[in-house]
Amino acid sequence: MKQILRPASVTNWSERIHGFIWQLFFSSGFKRFGKNIRFVAPDIIKGEQAISIGNNVYMGRRGWLQVLDHNADAYMNIGDDTYIGRHVHIVCHDAIDIEAEVLIADKVYISDNSHDYRDINLSIRFAPVKPLKPVSIGRGSWLGENVCVIGASVGKHSVIGSNSVVLNDIPNYCIAVVTPAKIVKRYSESSGKWESC
After folding, report:
1. Is the pLDDT of residue 3 over 80?
2. Which domains does the chain have, with CATH numbers?
């Protein structure tokens, strides 16, 4: 089957029009909805009354932002100038804070909860949601394609390599890869370089 490529200008205008229409009808339900936001054909948006979006935020196609309704004090924050790729799922039970200028590649999963699988007499599908630690993604960080961050935080200006799963906190100025994610480089202020661990 021959693939038909549309000119970038047509795609961009299509995304802009769709984003404008979506914003016109749905932005008022958010806790905060900043300026110059572009959400392209989101798949699921739930709990928007607990979601704050900063200025100049982009989210690609089929994005998923969800705050579960188990906790009235739950919140999700997405900071200014953050780029969220396609098919990204962010699911919040208590608290997820994505600071400004974060780069999130396609197919990333961020969650502060999991299914409670401990009761073997209960199907996991119907098991209760188990809250984990609050999640924060530090300013200026980059999450590569297919990264999962589950009940852990990533420090500022850190890089998580593609296909990595973050289950433990990653400090500021680190590069972490594999599953579970391990630090392979740190930025040294004394040398002014990224140094292997």
Report:
1. no
2. 8-196 (2.160.10.10)
